[in-house]
Amino acid sequence: MPETDHPRMGRPTKGPAFFPTLTLLFLLGPVLAGLLGTLLPSFGLLRPSGAAAFSLEPWTALAEWPGLARSLWLSLKTGVIATLIAFVLAVLLVAGWQGTRWFKVAHGLLSPLLSLPHTAAALGLAFLIAPSGWVARLMSPWATGWNRPPDILVLNDPGGWSLIFGLVLKELPFLLLMLIATLPQLQVRDRTNVATALGYGAVLGWCLTVLPGAYRQTRLPVYAVLAYAISNVDMALILGPTAPPVLSIQILNAMNDPDLGLRAPAAAAALLQLVLVLVALIIWKAGEVAGATCVQALLWRGARGNSLAFRALKPIGLSTVTATAVLLFSGLLAHFLWSVTGRWRFPDVLPQSFKTRTWDRAGEDLLFTGFTTVSLAFLVAVVALALVIGCLETEHRRGRAMGTGGVLILYIPLILPQISFLPGLQILLLLAGVNHGIWPVAVAHLVFVLPYVFLTLAGPFRAWDRRLATVASALGHSQQSILWRVKLPMMLAPILIAIAIGMAVSVGQYLPTLLASGGRVETLTTEAIALASGGNRREIGVWAITLTFAAWIPFLFAYALPALMFRNRKGMTNG
Amino acid sequence: MDKAASQSGLTLSDLSVYRRSGEKLLQVNAHVLPGRTLTIMGPSGIGKSTLLAAITGTLSPDFRCSGSVRLNDRELMQVPPEKRRLGILFQDHLLFPHFSVAQNLAFGLPPRTKHRRARVEQALEDIDLKGFASRDPASLSGGQRARVALMRMLLSEPEALLLDEAFSRLDQDLRARMRRLVFAKAEQAQLPVIMVTHDQEDAEAAAGDILRFPPPLAT
Amino acid sequence: MRLTAILAAGVFATAALAETPSPAPNPDNWDAVLQDANGETVYWNAWGGSPQTNDFIAWVGQRVKDEHGVTLKHVKLSDTADAVSRVIAEKSAGKTNGGAVDMIWINGANFAAMKDADLLFGPFAEALPNWKFVDADGKTVTTDFTVPTEGYESPWAMAQVVFIYDSETLPNPPKSAAALLDWAQANPGRFTFPQPPDFLGGTFLKQMLIELADDPSVLQSPAGANYADVTAPLWQWLDALTPSLWRQGRAFPQTGPRQLQLIDDGEIDLAISFSPGEASAAIANDLLPDTARTFVLDGGTLGNASFVAIPFNASAKAGAMVVADFLLSPEAQLRAQTPDILGYGTVLNMDALAASDRDAFAALDLGPATLSPAELGQALPEPHASWMTKIEQDWSTRYGAGN
């Protein structure tokens, strides 16, 4: 090895990196403390009664939970299948339609739906597809002959298919936008042109030439979706099977049970949930290998993907994605209609009477709570943004991308089921003396907002042309000057999107808000979840609409502001 | 070393670049006099651009370098990139897309320059782009962009010039004119120039020493 | 494991040193309580799923602010367990003072668990000035699921099981376990109940057990070796009923309100409720058709009270007591019983009230779907809490595990 002397960008960067350390602290501190707070009770320590002795009894109690095996299987099945379907549909749409006008329409339709809260989506869907729901009302009684709703098991089916349906619907926009975000760096047009010239059909050509690269970059978001799909509570509560429910609901029920003795097995179950997520990731990894092998096999067989079956994939992609958008929007419309409904019974297509009472009653609360929610979300998103930019800039200056370990750490909060570590986090915050109020909530939100902000910004930051920095430093500009005058202004669009996504994530947090604030900080989501427990569709409608709107406003800014500021800068529109 | 130290111009002494694995890519010993051009030629992937990055101090962490770079009696290896006073031009011209043409030029002016606006106006006139001050760089033609990039670099008052395939994106006719302009400016300011290219005509137009590298053993 | 224990002790015990409890207000010195309460902010953790309840709590807040300078904040919960969890977490962290929860809407098993774990402040209830109006002899306000309250919680509303039905589609509802089974088998898919361990679902099972058990009096003692024998008739009955339930018993509504929604959607004809006034309030709020009515079973139905309790580490104990006392005032009780407001039964003894208050209660129109006290009859006492726990677990194994 020769003497290696390598001044890189500017000052030699040695010693502790301030931002990555701080970020790790914010991410891992709460998560590890939280996990400890779950691990200990699951082995008989840290009991509510104060008694503490190591024991495996929580685990043996867990083993006797009714339907545990089936719950595990249902969680795994619904999560994996939903993620797979959503991913395949996203690929089909992009592969078959990228660059067309239809693609733009579909993209435009789905983008705002990213901010749709899971609970609102699930409730909207539930009202659409229930036997007494909107679809049935549209068809009854003239087509179906139903004057009363039929006794058909659609929602909450024991096989979990309505949950899978809901998860696909909600995750499809996210995966699609993540996939689209990778495309600018993949010279898609060149690649697909070559494939077309060689006689490949659109879908197969795209899958062979673009997908491998695109998948490499969307892999982690896909894992996050998978982990969410397996461990989510909000959608499973509304659409999922009930006898037995998925594991996450079993845990929730046990945690909420008045019998405090169930908390220890619930903690054990929360760890089991974590194991389940890891199992699913392993299964998914195996699926990746199998998928790659299939693609290889197609390649060697010389398939061109022009057969009828392959050509049919194209319309399937567009139509399912359009149907997704239509369903989600119909759900929102239904929420709105209910929010102004007096009476509305089956089989009427529209409400029999309209009332503004629900809005009137919520009015002042909405404004006040909405303001708290959005301010908190903005605060958290901006702090996360500062940390992420600090990390990415450190990475840029050190010239070393965060290793796999770093990326995994970042993903831990997204992959860990919230129920596995939030109760422990609550105790940590109490010990730290931050009892209630806005700050502990902000810290708890930060754990979940940081990863999303990082994910959104890492791509554009890493894809940024380093030669611009070379040019600027050759022009005599310091690192600091380059960051503030060149890089950040050029990144305005992705930065605003990252803030919007971060805010949407913060707005949607329920458990972290509740646990960290001791219930003393009300946000739109805590209000909405409390009201949703009362099942009144009018109330749910008001809050679902407001919540969606609150999460959507930052996106509006994120799209409008760069367009306005750089309206005379063509070079900024595709960057 | 001592001999080089006393000379003005750009001196590369045993400047070597390696992959992180330790595999050596290039080693260069050269002295470029003010107003003269050293052309480095060789096939793609051999490490020519990496060598320039070593000189500007912006080497990517996948590479290492050793040896010395001296510019007019200053040893550059431990100097941060922004203090090295080296101008560089790339084939893509790399105007900052969020700035107007005038802002791009102003960005090159050293901090304590007086009469900045007037200097920028004058610079635009020098490259026949009077009236282009508030234009969007994306709306310029390739030749216009190349001239703005060149002028921006010159405004930063560099002491040496590095050209990384700077002309390869331009068409035949434009390419010749741009070359003339760059070399004329370099000579006028008495700047030593190192040009990386794989184009024979570029090398001939530079009319200086040529360093040719054999194809790499691997790849 | 020793290592984790040490780690845990280190991590979780440090704060315990810092807190020294401030002297708790003495409920017997009410003037001092009022003085302490003035200017305090009370965080009342209560279920927030009903806008009517939320409005009522907001009204209480307005009144105690005007009257006593107490600021009342409603922490809207989706489940009472959230508040219990918070207090437990605070206790684990050694936080014996300045807790986030000042008052909880509570009863039954949650109360038993908190009292058992020494998580409650008290006794205070019987020292409240308005306790003199409470019908402590006639109503089950001093025991909660057979557990003596001993002043650790203060009652504020009476509840009794009723069944809600739509008189238009079901003119003659079944009023016994046997009739219910016959009717369900003749009309499959038209009945269901909230899935145990939901509170209301568990209550339905208990209600049926009381009627089906050979000797319901054993239910007042903890469940023991007799459990299997006593509950056998219930499982026999459920085995016969379940296939005729809504969705053939393969899915259940998760909560009481969702079950009520199913009536309004026309999916079911009959639903259990724990509030005699719920149907009238729901009609007034457009949540049920105005043909909805209620009935009680021929053998009578379960009754209990809703309480408020104060955690041991509450920040505003005096303020919480003032709110608890206000809830017992004739003014608050009358408002709570008004059908389009809450429709909750009063805990007060009419004979103890001033004549004008008594008249006001008598003049109250309880609404179209609310039974008179005579029709409701004497409420049956709640079985010991252990029965509910065991039945719910058993039910989940038999019907809730997908076998």
Automatic annotation (TrEMBL), chain A:
<dbReference type="GO" id="GO:0055085">
    <property type="term" value="P:transmembrane transport"/>
</dbReference>
<feature type="domain" description="ABC transmembrane type-1">
    <location>
        <begin position="368"/>
        <end position="565"/>
    </location>
</feature>
<feature type="transmembrane region" description="Helical">
    <location>
        <begin position="366"/>
        <end position="392"/>
    </location>
</feature>
<feature type="transmembrane region" description="Helical">
    <location>
        <begin position="491"/>
        <end position="511"/>
    </location>
</feature>
<feature type="transmembrane region" description="Helical">
    <location>
        <begin position="72"/>
        <end position="97"/>
    </location>
</feature>
<feature type="transmembrane region" description="Helical">
    <location>
        <begin position="438"/>
        <end position="458"/>
    </location>
</feature>
<keyword id="KW-0472">Membrane</keyword>
<keyword id="KW-0813">Transport</keyword>
<dbReference type="InterPro" id="IPR035906">
    <property type="entry name" value="MetI-like_sf"/>
</dbReference>
<feature type="transmembrane region" description="Helical">
    <location>
        <begin position="260"/>
        <end position="283"/>
    </location>
</feature>
<feature type="transmembrane region" description="Helical">
    <location>
        <begin position="540"/>
        <end position="561"/>
    </location>
</feature>
<dbReference type="GO" id="GO:0005886">
    <property type="term" value="C:plasma membrane"/>
</dbReference>
<dbReference type="InterPro" id="IPR000515">
    <property type="entry name" value="MetI-like"/>
</dbReference>
<feature type="transmembrane region" description="Helical">
    <location>
        <begin position="316"/>
        <end position="338"/>
    </location>
</feature>
<feature type="transmembrane region" description="Helical">
    <location>
        <begin position="404"/>
        <end position="432"/>
    </location>
</feature>
Automatic annotation (TrEMBL), chain B:
<dbReference type="InterPro" id="IPR027417">
    <property type="entry name" value="P-loop_NTPase"/>
</dbReference>
<dbReference type="InterPro" id="IPR003439">
    <property type="entry name" value="ABC_transporter-like_ATP-bd"/>
</dbReference>
<keyword id="KW-0813">Transport</keyword>
<dbReference type="InterPro" id="IPR050093">
    <property type="entry name" value="ABC_SmlMolc_Importer"/>
</dbReference>
<keyword id="KW-0378">Hydrolase</keyword>
<dbReference type="InterPro" id="IPR003593">
    <property type="entry name" value="AAA+_ATPase"/>
</dbReference>
<protein>
    <submittedName>
        <fullName>Sulfate/thiosulfate import ATP-binding protein CysA</fullName>
        <ecNumber>3.6.3.25</ecNumber>
    </submittedName>
</protein>
<feature type="domain" description="ABC transporter">
    <location>
        <begin position="10"/>
        <end position="219"/>
    </location>
</feature>
<dbReference type="GO" id="GO:0005524">
    <property type="term" value="F:ATP binding"/>
</dbReference>
<dbReference type="GO" id="GO:0016887">
    <property type="term" value="F:ATP hydrolysis activity"/>
</dbReference>
<keyword id="KW-0547">Nucleotide-binding</keyword>
<dbReference type="Pfam" id="PF00005">
    <property type="entry name" value="ABC_tran"/>
</dbReference>
<keyword id="KW-0067">ATP-binding</keyword>
From TrEMBL, chain C:
<protein>
    <submittedName>
        <fullName>ABC-type uncharacterized transport system, periplasmic component</fullName>
    </submittedName>
</protein>
<dbReference type="InterPro" id="IPR006059">
    <property type="entry name" value="SBP"/>
</dbReference>
<feature type="signal peptide">
    <location>
        <begin position="1"/>
        <end position="18"/>
    </location>
</feature>
<dbReference type="Pfam" id="PF13416">
    <property type="entry name" value="SBP_bac_8"/>
</dbReference>
<keyword id="KW-0732">Signal</keyword>
<dbReference type="InterPro" id="IPR027020">
    <property type="entry name" value="YnjB"/>
</dbReference>
